[in-house]
Specification:
By secondary structure, this protein is mainly α. It has one domain. The chain is built from 14 helices and 2 strands; from the N terminus they run ααββαααααααααααα. It has a two-stranded antiparallel ribbon with strand order 1-2. The N terminus is likely disordered.
């Protein structure tokens, strides 16, 4: 597993420049994106399931997209392992995803239209050389035919997973930046410099957006940003982690991005049980539960989910290191934290119930 790390000469200064460049561009462009939102009428109006009490400009993701792509174009020519066709496929897909997000932020497109375009984008990525290959495993030849559908499901799934957690100010940008940092570490350990550039640039873009997006926000990223973030995470995870160990790669990356994945699975199952369409919007996400049930503030909710995301990322690193003793300790700590959180939530619920009973007397 470790031969990748020793064979690759990582240019640390180059990574820092990519991070700083994307951070600076997005930080500079975010106020401009806010003005564009107002000019184009891309405004998120207050609604029953929403958390904003006033109209909110929703094209902040345009700054993330432009900052990320500008940095990638400026730096990609200096990466020795850069594959022109792969990057062209990624860039075309990214432009389409961001464009689709902009249209949705302005006109509120139907879910099936967005899903169709996302699948088409995933096909573009697959047929320009980026896919999850079942190599290095003693599997029947039949599994080779699954590489395309598995890759499509992965890309479309991560796109929507990040989109679904974008319900609280600063959550999607923060969680994505955390996941990006851990993916960058994994790529440094076992992947390619190109993947490191992808992930570290994404982290810089997210952090450049957070000052105007953290509660109380004055702009949100909208579908333009959230779907693009999910797209970049999905593609970079494929090209960067454990070449030749596809199954292990998926497991590790799934842990690094466990929060949006778990949230999506939980919400989908919950809606299906209730007889609703999985795509029907409601207040069933983790962040809604923390606010509605546990009584957390917006800021506290975001911080708790940041911590959870970081814990899952650490577990991903431990799995990659294959030190199962440390992994067991990490899992025990996670269980302890979950227990403490459950106890705290129950205590808050009891206090609220007691207060309500006292008010009714």
């Amino acid at each position: 597993m470790y031969e990748y790390y020793y064979e690759i000469d990582h240019n640390w200064l180059f990574y820092i420049i990519a991070f700083a460049l994307s951070f600076g561009i997005v930080l500079f462009l975010t106020p401009w994106a806010r003005k564009v939102s107002v000019k184009l009428g891309a405004i998120d109006q207050p609604k029953a399931r929403g958390l904003h009490k006033k109209p909110m400009p929703r094209l902040g993701g345009l700054a993330i997209f432009l900052g990320f792509m500008a940095t990638m174009i400026a730096t990609s020519f200096f990466v020795e392992e850069f594959r022109a066709l792969q990057f062209v496929g990624f860039a075309v897909g990214g432009i389409i995803i961001a464009g689709l997000g902009m249209l949705d932020d302005i006109y509120n497109l139907r879910p099936y239209i967005k899903l169709f375009v996302q699948i088409a984008v995933a096909l573009v990525v697959v047929f320009t050389g980026t896919r999850i290959d079942f190599i290095g495993w003693d599997m029947p030849a039949f599994f080779d035919y699954l590489t395309i559908p598995v890759t499509i499901i992965w890309i479309v799934g991560i796109i929507n997973a990040v989109n679904f957690i974008d319900g609280v100010d600063g959550l999607a940008a923060g969680v994505t930046s955390i996941a990006s940092v851990f993916l960058a570490i994994l790529s440094i350990m076992t992947g390619s410099p190109m993947a490191v550039i992808f992930t570290i640039t994404l982290a810089g873009s997210c952090l450049g957006f957070l000052p105007r997006n953290f509660s109380p926000a004055d702009v949100i990223m909208g579908d333009t940003g959230s779907t693009f973030l999910g797209y970049v995470l999905a593609v970079s995870s494929i090209i960067g982690v454990y070449k030749g160990y596809a199954l292990l790669s998926v497991v590790i990356v799934a842990f690094a991005m466990a929060l949006p994945i778990m949230d999506t699975i939980f919400v989908f199952i919950s809606r299906i049980i209730k007889g609703k369409s999985p795509m029907t919007a409601d207040r069933g996400h983790f962040h809604h539960k923390l606010i509605d049930k546990a009584g957390f503030s917006h800021k506290k909710t975001v911080v708790v989910l940041y911590i959870a995301s970081a814990i899952f990322g650490i577990i991903a690193i431990l799995i990659a290191l294959q030190d199962f003793r440390v992994l067991i300790i990490g899992l025990v700590l996670v269980l302890v934290l979950i227990s403490l959180f459950y106890s705290y939530r129950k205590r808050v619920s009891n206090i609220k119930t007691s207060d309500d009973e006292n008010e009714n007397k």
